[in-house]
Amino acid sequence: MDPEKSSSGSRGKPIRCRAAVSRKPGEPLVMEEIIVAPPMPHEVRIRIICTSLCHSDIIFWKMKDFPGIFPRILGHEAIGIVESVGEDVNEVTEGDTVIPTFMSQCGECADCRSTKSNLCTKLPFKVSPFMPRYDTSRFTDLNGEVLYHFLFVSSFTEYTVVDIAHVTKIDPAVTPSRACLLGCGISTGVGAAWRTANVEEGSTVAIFGLGSIGLAVAEGARLCGATRIIGVDVNQQKFEIGKKFGLTDFVDPANCENKSVSEVIIEMTGGGADYCFECVGLASLVQEAYACCRKGWGKTVVLGVDKPGSQVSLPSGEILHSGKNLMGSLFGGLKPKSDIPLLLNRYMDKELQLDEFVTHEVRFEDINKAFDLLIEGQCLRCVISMCNE
């Protein structure tokens, strides 16, 4: 059977399309033609409209040991149109606009039915090179070699296959280049303030690391009504950028004289911040964030991805005596199918800022330029358009 070049008459058949394939760690992606198999039961094949580059893509692009694996199709912040569906898929149909997510929501397990968790038990999060239900790939190159999946999305391709538990149907009226941001980073940051920490009106927040996720935490804290939002970063330019997302104060670790960052924040806040967020992925910063969190009710939320095997060391006496909370937050505690539409509504109502996160836009052919921009710290989010126009 000859693979189809486009979606016309392609239902149930393989599709031949372009993809940016990561062949070797740290090397530029290779634009090549691949074959995308039809969806299996509980799966959806999606035509990607646009995708964004997240720092997690960079981490796994550089990773030489498992779960780094090659050749692979990276990308996990995207929006697309349903091209076809497999058996037992009822919640979307051909032509629907959807956002694929690395987090699943099966709707059936105890976690999905509970308001307390977004960690689906039936299809748990893991960094797998395959589809979640079958442990097989839907991608091959023109030589028949298997191309591995990434975070159950793999959006650096014109067509991808995603499990229905990882697909959220959205309003097609939302601008695609903005909606795609909610597939990972912005949702994670906003959700961490909104869902995980439940930041209260009038509270004080400290954010360690002012990349896209840290700034999204600031945006979430602003929406929740926090009155003081302190950003901690070694790049002083981030303060000016962060002001539009609600930052009120800035701490540069290099300019704290002989004090630690936690000591400075404790002095600034008269006892510590109500909520602290670690958005870099360093055990030492988790410890600093916990140290400057207010005793009695303070919450420290970990969002940063540290290198495998890293350990956080905290004095057991402080844990016992301080009454503070330390917690992790995957995808900001959001349930994708129910919370992403809520965030998009807030964007449409001009409450949630998304436009301000998009600093660059490139064509699919120039995807390696997006990598350069993010690695060099020149952008927040670079949106990659699949259109040739």
From TrEMBL:
Source organism of this protein record: Prunus mume (Japanese apricot)
Required co-factors: Zn(2+)
Gene this chain is encoded by: LOC103321166
Pfam families in the cross-refs: ADH_N (PF08240), ADH_zinc_N (PF00107)
Alcohol dehydrogenase-like C-terminal domain residues: 213-343
Domain Alcohol dehydrogenase-like N-terminal: 41-170
Entry similarity comment: Belongs to the zinc-containing alcohol dehydrogenase family.
Keyword terms of this UniProt record: Metal-binding, Oxidoreductase, Zinc
Name of this protein: Alcohol dehydrogenase-like 7
Quaternary structure annotation from Swiss-Prot or TrEMBL: Homodimer.
PROSITE patterns (UniProt xref): ADH_ZINC
Source species taxonomy: Eukaryota, Viridiplantae, Streptophyta, Embryophyta, Tracheophyta
